[in-house]
């Protein structure tokens, strides 16, 4: 599978797309983009983890500068493995924090963790 071919997980009104991408500034790496997937508001950003080689960071909610968190400043040494751990253990809480409580309430944390664990080798190969 190519680095650029996305991995998609869908559940309870959200879509998680994992893909290797290049930012406008030329940095690149793996992005975990979590958006709404309902009929009304499909495509609204819930969370995004940009596990870039130069400046890894993540966004909670819309992509304003104030919503961006620099992983290196938070002591994260391996952005991809850290992101996978967050998504496997804290995903509904993070979706809730982003302001999507209805979606958070419907998420099956165990199912997400199982899917990510099953796809982990494929995800790491994209990095």
Describe it.
- The protein has 127 residues and is α+β, with helices and mostly antiparallel strands.
- The chain is built from three helices and six strands; from the N terminus they run ββββββααα.
- The protein has helices at residues 79-97, 101-106, 109-126, and strands spanning 7-11, 14-22, 28-36, 45-52, 57-60, 68-70.
- A six-stranded antiparallel β-sheet has the order 1-2-3-4-5-6, with helices on one face.
- Helix 1 (79-97) runs antiparallel to helix 3 (109-126).
- The longest helix has 19 residues, at 79-97.
- The mean pLDDT is 90.
Characteristic terms for this protein:
127 residues, alpha+beta, six-stranded antiparallel sheet, globular
Write the layout of secondary structure elements.
Layout: E1 7-11, E2 14-22, E3 28-36, E4 45-52, E5 57-60, E6 68-70, H1 79-97, H2 101-106, H3 109-126
Helix pairs in contact: 1-3
Strand ordering within the main sheet: 1-2-3-4-5-6
Low-confidence stretches: none
| Arithmetic mean of pLDDT | 90
Strand tally: 6
Shape: globular
Report the sheet with the most strands, covering strand number, pairing sense and barrel closure: 6 strands, antiparallel
Strand content: 25-35%
Report how far the terminal alpha carbons are from each other.
12 Å
- The number of helices is 3
- Percent helix, as a range, is 25-40%
Q: In sequence order, what are the helices and strands, one letter per element?
A: EEEEEEHHH
Oligomeric state of shown chains: single chain
Structural class: alpha+beta
Radius of gyration: 14 Å
């Amino acid at each position: 599978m190519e680095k650029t071919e996305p991995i998609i997980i869908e559940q309870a009104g959200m879509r998680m797309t994992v893909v290797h991408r290049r930012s406008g500034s030329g940095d690149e790496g793996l992005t975990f983009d979590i958006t709404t997937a309902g009929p009304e508001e499909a495509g609204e950003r819930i969370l995004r983890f940009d596990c870039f080689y130069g400046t890894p960071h993540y966004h909670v909610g819309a992509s304003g500068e104030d919503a961006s968190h620099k992983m290196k400043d938070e002591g994260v040494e391996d952005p991809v493995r850290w992101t996978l751990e967050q998504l496997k253990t804290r995903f509904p809480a993070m979706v809730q924090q982003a302001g999507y409580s209805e979606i958070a309430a419907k998420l099956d944390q165990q199912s997400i963790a199982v899917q990510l664990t099953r796809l982990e080798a494929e995800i790491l190969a994209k990095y």
